[in-house]
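Model it.
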Amino acid sequence: MWWNDLAAMAEALSALAPHTDPSARVSPRATLQGAIRIGAGSRICDGAHVQGPVSIGRDCLIGNNALLRGPLCIGDGTRIGFASELKNARLGNQVSIGPQCFVADSRIDDQVYLGALVRTSNHRLDGATVSVHIEGTAIDSQRDKLGAWIGEGAALGVGVIILPGRIVAPGSQFGPRITVERNLPPGRYRLLQSLHSQPLE
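Modeled.
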């Protein structure tokens, strides 16, 4: 069950030893608290706030005013855009997170692209635990907060919202403003839009 990966990550990071590689660049206007490991060549920009335990790989970019709340593991070559918030998430290598995204309680595999304002919803409004559908079977995760599993190479356009516990298939593409309400097979998805011209008054 993929949410167990998050629990395993949190356990592994509980013993994280703080370390910043000498080649990493951390802005004096960034804030770092707790156990944080920053890999070679990575950059933490102005206004970023990183609250450990957080492991950041090599050659990563943490953009201006980003908020990272551990436990959080970020793979090599990953870029996180302006004012994005991430918490309790596991990100693979070469992931691109656009500006003002929210990624929580989620697993993001290698080479995923998230456009600006993508949201992983992680909490049911009725307060019930989140169920995950796997091969037609609903499995209770027994977690009151659970985001999404986004498979390798998936690309999500501006403003996509993913409801709690959903799985985005590897290689899938979702156009702007789609709400992912259920698990879908790999494919390319877009909203149909109908515009009607009216005379100017």
